[in-house]
Amino acid sequence: MRTVTAYSDSELLELLRNGSKEAFTQLYATYSERLYHILLRMVKSPDIAEELLQDVFIRIWEKRATINVQSSLGAYLNKIGENIVYDFFRKAARDRSLYAQLENYMERVTEPAAAPVDGGEDLLNKAIEELPPQRRQVFRLCKLEGQSYQQVSLLLGISVSTVNDHIVKATKTLQKNISGRIVSIAVCMLLTGIR
């Protein structure tokens, strides 16, 4: 069994800047649980908190070479977590606003010859179908059938972290695709003069 060396925060940062996966693993093990609970208090959803937690550590890994911590590492991670939550809420508000505008346009359509516009559920189903097969299966099992990440891990013979990775990537893809389709529909409606 391989033991992981316990590093101080300053050592962790230096090793992380140099791309150490061991340092990243220790960083995650040390701070993820506390940060998860902070995120959960902010978003009130275990699934969203877990996805945002992964976003925090993805951001840390991607920006590892330029990390500059002025205070404690824990406070730095908390600040990144808060910023990611605020970004999440801003994006959700924009999506709700855009969807409300689209619904308003759809309600105003009175011409029987007007092309039908897919509802939200149809958009979601089409976007899910476009996911890669395993990601689609993982997303359906976790999000639509309500199975836990652990259950899906055992069922499909993949690690819990792989399940989580699929959920994070599927969610981002779905948000992007659905938002893009809603914008396209709204633009088409505006361009064709539907008010």
Automatic annotation (TrEMBL):
Key words, A-Z: DNA-binding, Sigma factor, Transcription, Transcription regulation
The keyword Transcription regulation belongs to this UniProt entry's keyword annotation: yes
Transcription regulation in keyword set: yes
Superkingdom: Bacteria
GO BP terms in the entry: DNA-templated transcription initiation
Domain RNA polymerase sigma factor 70 region 4 type, chain residue ranges per copy: 123-174
Entry GO MF terms: DNA binding; sigma factor activity
Record domain RNA polymerase sigma-70 region: where: 27-94
Family: Belongs to the sigma-70 factor family. ECF subfamily.
Entry protein name: RNA polymerase sigma factor
